[in-house]
Write a structure and sequence with these properties.
By secondary structure, this protein is mostly helical. The chain has a single domain, classed as Cytochrome Bc1 Complex, Chain D, domain 2. It contains eleven helices and six strands. Strands 1-2 form a two-stranded antiparallel ribbon. A two-stranded antiparallel ribbon has the order 3-4. Strand 3 and strand 4 form a beta hairpin. The protein is globular, with a radius of gyration of 24 Å.
């Protein structure tokens, strides 16, 4: 009996993760070392997302330092409600009121890239809203079924609907359905941005949220190059030393 329980405990988590692994994601192709992209993403977040979502594990001054933003400039362009640079990035929305408006309080997004599937998931999510009259805010999402938030960038991206083929597929029995993808979406009303402009904006936002999930990643990548270089040099020196030691033997 013990062996059975241990086996189930080992297998069950794998099944849970595998169940969510078949959703087709678009490639964000983001670069976490691109500070211009990170700054653009930070600006988009502070202006469009912070009203509902916080980054409670991230501080303003750490963000300024990592993204190469002068503190005075950061205060003027990214801080709007009287916080101090050393404060965590939070908002003033009462959780109870947020839950009443949206059905659930909007989640903190500091670790969303780590808890989901990285920047690719965020990128696909922000491009994946489509019209669904049955949802409270009139939209659904290809990677987050029955999403509980409005499409805040709809005026920028435009209005998308499911293709006729996708609608027909969803009318099939559940076991015959497949996951939705961006290929199932059709633009029916253009937004104020071109598709390329919108993709760049949400790529930068996804890039910023990947950074907040692990701010030290940029330093780790930079340090990794130095470590690899050191190991290459060490290998060469070790090889030459080995040849010197064994020269008389051979």
């Amino acid at each position: 009996m013990k062996k059975v329980l241990v086996t189930l405990l080992c297998v069950f988590p794998a099944m849970v993760f595998a169940a969510g692994g078949n959703i087709p994601l678009d490639k964000a192709n983001n670069d976490i070392t691109d500070k211009a992209s990170l700054r653009n993403g930070a600006e988009t977040f502070m202006n469009s997302c912070l009203g509902c979502h916080s980054l409670k594990y991230q501080r303003y001054n750490r963000t300024f330092a990592d993204l190469g933003i002068d503190e005075k400039e950061g205060i003027e362009t990214l801080m709007f409600t009287g916080e101090k640079p050393g404060d965590h990035i939070t908002n003033n929305m009462p959780e109870a009121e947020a839950a009443a408006w949206f059905g659930a309080a909007p989640p903190d997004l500091t670790l969303v890239a780590r808890s989901r599937k990285g920047a690719d998931w965020i990128y696909t999510y922000l491009r994946g809203f489509y019209v669904d009259p049955e949802r409270p805010f009139g939209v659904n999402n290809i990677v987050f079924k029955d999403v509980g938030m409005p499409h805040v960038f709809q005026n920028l991206q435009g209005v998308q609907e499911l293709s006729d083929d996708a609608k027909a597929m969803l009318a099939l029995p559940t076991k015959e359905q497949r996951p939705l993808s961006s290929d199932d979406l059709v633009m029916v009303q253009e937004g104020t941005m071109t598709a390329a402009e919108y993709d760049t904006m949400v790529r930068d936002l996804a890039n910023f949220l990947e950074y907040t999930g692990e701010p030290s990643k940029v330093d780790r990548i930079r340090l990794g190059y130095w470590v690899m270089g050191f190991l290459v040099i060490l290998f060469i020196l070790s090889y030459l030393l080995k040849k010197e030691y064994w020269r008389d033997v051979h």
